[in-house]
Amino acid sequence: MKKTLLTGLLILLGMASQAQNEITIDGKVTNVKDGLIVSLFREDGRVGTTIATDTIEGGTFHFKVEAKDKLDKLSVYVRSTDFPSMTRDVYATPNSHIQVIGNDNLIYTWEVKSDVKEQQEADKYLFAAKDLWIEFQKRGAEESGLWKIIDSSTATSEEKQAAKDKMKSLRKECEEIQLEISKIEIAMMKERPVTPIWLDKMYGLSMGVRYKPDYPYTEDVKALYARMSEEQKNSDMGKLITPNVFPPKVVKVGEEMADTDLYDLEGNLHHLAELKGKYLLLDFWSSGCGPCIMAIPEMGEIQGKYADKLTVVSLSSDTEKQWKAASARHNMTWKNWSDKKQTGGLYAKYGVNGIPHYVLISPEGKMVSSWFGYGKGSLWRQLRPYMQPKPAMSFEKKEGVLLVNYPDVQSNQTNGTLEIKQVECTPQATVIHFNAYYTPNYWIKIASSTMLTTSDGKQFKVLKAEGITLDKEFFMPESGEAEFSLTFEPLPSGIKSFNFKESENWKIMGIRLE
User: Fold this and answer.
1) What is the CATH code of the structural domain delimited by 262-387?
2) Residues of the chain whose pLDDT is less than 70?
3) Helix, strand, or coil here: 418?
């Protein structure tokens, strides 16, 4: 009998302990249609994870989730093109019972009733600029609706273009509103104590300093930064803020690589300098980045094939906890390190603004290439010129025709997609034979406005194409490799070099003929 009572008591204590560790959120909304899905995200560092969903029924929704920390930062999000692409921040502590009340689709300014002091502090900033945030959201909701037109299979090209033009105008208006909001926040932050909420606001302002060349509040943000203690500057958030407010020199192609203290999963110290002697592929990634994760198998294949020439080093922007958890889920057989500064260390020194981002370092330790994004086969394509260099430039003359094989070039700005195999120079025409490398089943296009240019500004039009049709999408085969040729008006006799220009961003400069 005593044993039964003791067991029952332990069960009740366990249930009570679990209940004390729960967060309850009750939502009540009006002027919002039933059936919409509401999601609850938990923020961990700069990454959000969906932890619960519910459907609005009778104007209500409900969440009950386990608390993970003494303070959780959660976000409520409604999936609908009638809503702006924004979330409502909710701060919660264990055993919190929070009410979310909305009277429209402008979710960012929904009311949150809570005793959590961080919520109350954050909402003072929010509602000081409530009218501006309402205008910001209205434009955001209108922009969301425009995607219906842009993605529509029945809308005309004129309708789609009009939607894109309107979207561009709305975004410009939102930028102007955001500046007014920042002005209000800065005035408040000059008077209020430096807290974690203050630092969150500071991080947002610091992004304006980093990414907007004409940001009008740069000096104000620097003055706010001076209010931060050394401990705050060295905190995880401070390490993100500092390189935004005072950007480090960004390494450029041809310059010596940036290095720092790097740690493996066991906590051992490393440096990039110890890997000199081979090419280094730096992979800037995060566990919350889908394309980053998609690239993992291809990186493994590349490291295996080119182990004698190349070392892959993945550098995580996650918190240490996130990085270790993600590494346990994915088979990363190469060097997987972190400087423990998220986006504030090497990320800033290599100018990483989006991920996945890749940097190629020469065996001598200098940057040779940098690019953003991933698609199937893209890493093979980008690395091919370095791992499988083209044959040496050579010359032939056949029946008065000059043939230049694999000519040297000053710069190839086609992201490794095009390689010139041969140039034929005759009095009647200039023919360029290309090798093309691109993602299988993806397309490339050569415009009929493509031309050759010389140093004196003269232009030579494309006359015809073989193996590809001008102005039409050419889909790459499964091999990711193809060949085609373009015939241009003849270059002047005795010309030493010329440029190929398909567009402002797709060109090959300084193609040598001697």
Assistant:
1) 3.40.30.10
2) 1-20, 44-47
3) strand
